[in-house]
Amino acid sequence: MRFLTKMVSGFALVALASVVSLSLSSLPAWAASGGTTTTSSMQMGTGSSNGYSSTATSSSELSLGAALTKTGSDQLTLSVSPSPQAAANPAVVKSLAGQVVTFYVKTKVFSGDGMMAVGTATTNASGVATLNYMPTWTGVTDFAAQMGATSTMGAMSTSLNYNVLKDPTGVPSQYFESQRPLHGIATVLVKFLIGIAAAVWLILLGTLAVVLFRMPRLGRSQ
Amino acid sequence: MDKNSPIPPRDDNYSDTESAWAVDVREAATRGMTQKASRKWWLAIALLSLMVLAGVYAWYYQLKHGMASAGYNDQAFWAVYIADVIAFIGVSYGGAVISAILRLTGQSWRAPLTRIAEGMALATVIVGAMFIFPHLGRPERFMNIVYYANWSSPLVWDFLAIMTYTVATIIFFYIPLIPDLAIVNRHLGSSNSPMRRKIYSALSLNWMGNKRQRRLLHGSLTLISLVIIPLAVSVHSVLSWAFALTSRPGWAETVFPPYFVIAALYSGTALVIVTAAAFRSGYKLQRFITQRHFVRIGYLMAALGLVYLYLTFADMATEGYTGITTGWITQTITGRYAIPFWIYVLFGELIPIVVVAVKKFRNIKGLTFAAGGVVVALWIKRLVIVLPPATQPLIGSYWGAYHFTWVSITITLAGVAAVPLILMVMFRLIPILSIEEMEEAGPIGSIEQISDKTEKYQDTLLAGGRNLEHVKQKTPSAGLQMSGVDPISPQTTPALAVNPNVNTGGFSINPGEIR
Asked: Residue A63 in 3-state DSSP?
């Protein structure tokens, strides 16, 4: 029993390692690219780019921005950077470096709280953290970010009107709806499968019924 | 016939040996029902119940705060809960199919394992099916799958297949229990509470053990065994089609149905080993569940592991070679899912194969360790199957991400805790060993379990007790612990020299009976 206890504990650690590795490495190279962002002009206030408009608000130390990138795909780059007041103070900037920032989409679709985590990124030496994100529904998308355990999330928000294209050009057509090859025989196939399922149920319940009704009689008839 | 006789008579007359065996089997099988629960048992029950309650609270929290509280988002829409569904129903499949296959092929050595395997199958299928509710997010819409069934969707077939399989597992668990409940009712006699007696009496269906009842029992069990094997295959095929019939790279794979079926068998076999080891130790069943059982199931586990490795390779090699949609492969092997994937390779493939291949490790501890690793590794593997394709972009290059939260971890752990909890409570209410099957297999069946080494020494013993001292020195237990027989005590060994019928405490061994 002691061996089993040790074994269970050991494997619990293995499972935990997997869970932690998935959680910590949530956004590797493609996300944690702080410092190389093209969104510096979008970090504060309002702005627009290629027809997409964004507004941003800032907390006392940090500000959040969102912009359309030109990196070959229609994705946004969300960034968090020190506010102008904070940026002017090297000590504050230094304290903001190396912090984990969690980015959120404000939506109630997945979350009653209205905050759906979409990824994390670590701030660079300048206190800037960026995350690439592609919204999946059309219309205005609001974003928020939280650094560490601070409660500045609500203060840092930005909204962006982003259109999701249903059939963008250049994307392989196999990803979009087309006539299924089995379309013609679907009804027959479904009926056939329902027939098999019914037969299985008949065998299962029939066997049970025979056992339930016949077994007591056979016991009495001896 | 006297209903209150301690041992209900069988149609064929019991020999003294068989009677002694039957008494021992009944005592061991009902030990959990008759003995007062230990403090450790209560402690374990309390701990497991707490974990389950924590999971229920986490689910309530998830219902209140949304799927995002469990780490889900628009780009990781399927994640840990569907992996839990596959993993739990998978292990259930393994337990049921192993029991069914061994039953159909007449493997009498299976007898001490069947109840544990079938109980494990029942517990895991119930827990696995429960995971669909947190996975749904909006459980109040669950019945829509019936009201507005879309028969061209694999999800409807998933629902139907899982429900059918659950019913089949319950029936497969119940039917072999009928004679045991009758035996237990008589065995426990007045020590059983009146309520329990009534329930056992009703459920045992007036079992008298006559020929016609046995014929009906065996016939129905054979039929259910024949049905449950293809049924279990269909359940996992349909589960796999919930993935494979989508247009997602990494999921839309022709190899998925057998891939899922083999994974289910593999992890199920492993969990049978772990469960058997746990209850063998906890209920002191060393005499009945022996190393030979573990080795035989271990061989099966290793063979299935190799097939699963082959299918994993076939899946990745085909997609990797063509290079059409290989993003998920890169993410799996070298990207963010690399650590879980290589943990699977180590604990789910390499270690079990080494343990089974190397004689030194091929013992109960080694095999239990390997099997425990397989169970955990295969759960991790399911995550690796689900997450990379789910988060892979269909348009553009943005990869989504799933984050574990305390909610999803707590709900998953609750499921893990629920399985031993159900089994521990279950085996306080019903016998842990299949009494009828073990009595039918009899002591002769158990002799099959004697290891080769033991057989050699038995031959020496039966030849007339030559070199008896040598045997005693070399094998203090004469290997009989492995054979399901008590160690030969100094008091019993002198009899060996004069009587070829070896009294080993539980039953005698006749030379002609050893096969």
From this structure: strand
